[in-house]
Model the fold of this input.
Amino acid sequence: MRAAVLVPLTLITLAACDPNGILGSGDDVAAPRNLTYSVDPSGDPSAPSGLTLRWDDDGDPDLAVWHVYSRGRSGDAFGLRGSTSSTSFHDAGIPHLEYYVTAESVDGVESGPSDVVVVDERLALQGPSGLSTTSLNAAIALLWPDNAYLSEPAGFSHYRIYSAGYDLDADLCEDDWGLEGTTVAPEFVAGALANGRPRCFGISAISVEGWESLWSPVVHDTPRPDARNQVLYATQIDDLRAGFRFWNDVNRDGLSQPGELGLVGPGTDPGADFYLDLVSDRLYLVPQRVGTGVLPYGAGPVSDLTSIDVAPDLVYPQSPVEAQAGFGYVFAMDGGDGFARFGALRVTHVGRELIIFDWSFQTDPGNPQLLRAGG
Done:
C-alpha cells in the first residue's frame, strides 16, 4: 500500500501557537503516530463526500481525547476541525488539504502534533479505459480492462459500479445514478434487474487512499429473458410441438396468459412466431405469424447464444431458413403497437425429426439489444 504523504514537524518549535497555527506543547504526552487518511468516494471524482483519519492508540491510560486540526490551503493557519475519543475521525464534505492530530491527557495537557497528512488528489488512478456489457435474464454482466490495477498495483483498492435508468427514445441516461456494488476484479454482474428496462452503467477505480478515478465510458444495456435446451419437432412428426412463440402478448386461446415466454404449440397455429418444417430430410425455421421475419446471424456458426448481440437493422424476410447446428438466428416480430420485438436463437442440435436450441427475447418494445453492447 502507498503511504499517505506525511510532512514531519520535528523542526517546528512547539508552542501554544506557531506561525503556521500548529498547536500543542505537552512534552509529557506523546504525539499520535501513523496518521493516515482515506477519502470517501461519491461518484464525482472532483467532489469526495468526506474523509476518515486514523492513527495508532499508544495505550496511555491518561489520554482523554484527540484533537484534529486542518487547513484548506498551504500557508493558511491550521484550525481545530474537531475532537474525538476514538482513534479515527470522519470529516464530512470535501476534505481540507492538510490534517494533523494531537492528544490531550485527563489533566488537560495537549501533546505535540502528529505528522501532517497531505490529502493529495494526484494519487487518483486511471479510469477504466473501456466497458462492455452482456444482457442476461434479469441481469447485466459487465467487463472492462484492468488498466487501473495494472498501472499501479500497490495503489489500487477496488472498482465501483454505478447504474442509472436509460431513456431509449431520448438516448439519454436518467439522473437516478446509484451504486450497484464494488469488486476487485474487472468484471461484475448486476443482478435483480427488471427485464425489458434499459440501464446505463459506468465504472470507476478507487485508490488505497480512497481517491476515485474518472469513469469508464458509460454504456447502456437491457436485461431480457432467455432459456436453454428447448426442443421443437418437425410439424410432419408432431405438430402439437412444432410451433414456437417467443412472447405471448394476448390471451389467444383461453389457456395461455399474456406475458408468458417461450411457448411451444401447434405448428399450424397462426399465432406461432415460427414452426419447424421437414423438407427433403432437412429442417427449416418457417416464420408463421403475420409480421414475423427471420435472418441468419452472421455467415457461420456462433459459439454461444451470448454471441448474438444486437438485432441487425435490416429487412427480415418471411421466407424459411435452414436450421443448422451451431448457427444463430434473429427474429423480428410485430408487437401490435407500432414497435417491433426481437428474439434470437442458437441451434445446438439438429436431428432427423427435431432441433434443440437456446433462445432469448427482448421484452422492451423496439429495443434491438439481445445480448451485448459496449465500448
About this structure: The chain has one helix and 27 strands. The first strand starts at residue 5 and ends at 7. The helical segments are 147-151.
